Amino acid sequence: MFNLRLVVAGLAALIFMSIGCSNKESNSVHEVKENPSEAIVKQTPEEVEMRGVFKRSFEIHELDTNGKVYYVSDPEQLLMKDSNKIGQDGYYKLFETCVVGVIGSEGGYGPTGKYENEITVSKICV
Description:
The protein contains 3 helices and 5 strands; from the N terminus they run ααβββαββ. Strands 1-2-3-5-4 form a 5-stranded mixed barrel. The longest helix is centred in the N-terminal third of the chain and has 33 residues. The chain is α+β, with helices and mostly antiparallel strands. The relative contact order is 0.16. A hairpin with a 2-residue loop joins strand 2 and strand 3.
């Protein structure tokens, strides 16, 4: 009698788990298929040109443009190359520049998460 109850409880649990898993899986697949063009549009952000003062020191990589401060992501190290041209060879940098890049969504950027905004630099403008 005890074994029969155990088998019934096990089957019931298995049925409930399979129903729950199948609904989640079908919903996630449906959501992906529903709006594929919107996902593509969101993945191609527009580049902007910004002029400001670039500052680099310990845990600071920022561009100050008219009082609005952006965390600078510079994957190709373009600002470092530009700073070496003007004679700033050390780790600490401070100079006026113009960059072209993509602005990220608002969030906590930088090593400590203190920056609300981010720009990913793609090139230096004149």
